Amino acid sequence: MDYLFVSDAHGDRAVLGKIVTAYQNKVHAIFYNGDSELPADDELFNTMLPVIGNMDFDAMFPDDRQYHDATIDIYQTHGHLYQTELNLNQIRQKVSTLNIEVVTLGHTHQLGAEVIDNKLFINPGSIALPKGPYAYIGGTFAILTVTADTLQVQFYNRDLRAVPELQFSFPR
Prior knowledge:
By secondary structure, the chain is mainly beta. It has a single domain (2-171), classed as Purple Acid Phosphatase, chain A, domain 2, CATH 3.60.21.10. The protein has helices at residues 13-23, 89-95, and strands at 2-6, 29-32, 48-50, 64-68, 73-77, 102-104, 112-116, 119-123, 140-146, 150-157, 162-171. The protein has a 6-stranded mixed beta sheet with strand order 3-2-1-9-10-11, with helices on one face. The protein has a 5-stranded mixed beta sheet with strand order 4-5-6-8-7, with no helix packed on it. The longest helix has 11 residues, at 13-23. 38% of the residues are buried. Residues 1-147 form the Calcineurin-like phosphoesterase domain. Belongs to the metallophosphoesterase superfamily. YfcE family. GO terms for molecular function: hydrolase activity; metal ion binding. Its cofactor is a divalent metal cation.
């Protein structure tokens, strides 16, 4: 089962539309981790599961989301409400008592995938304004593939191409 995570488009609706068109029937769910700068009633969000970012001003976006299906339990937020630009301590405390396997967030514009406190944290980076050591890629999103034994994260660029050196596998 595959799940797509994208964040921080900052008004670049075209790239979000391209991702939705390419993946809406290929992944189980598309999570949008905030800072779209679009209204919550934009038709793109009929296909995506959005949360509010610090640059979103439509109060109809939720602050966070707990997602559950037969395959995975996911906690989604943008990150600004937990000061993730400083560290992950506040969000770690928030999710410590939740029965979830994956935490997904954005806000920092830096991609990452790592297990902390027995939970996989995934930041897809920014699809429009990337920062950090992978900024040269020009924008990224991530797909999580869930199997019985592993959680596999593959990062993609704006051209919807997998970035070979950004593929990670974590045991379940």
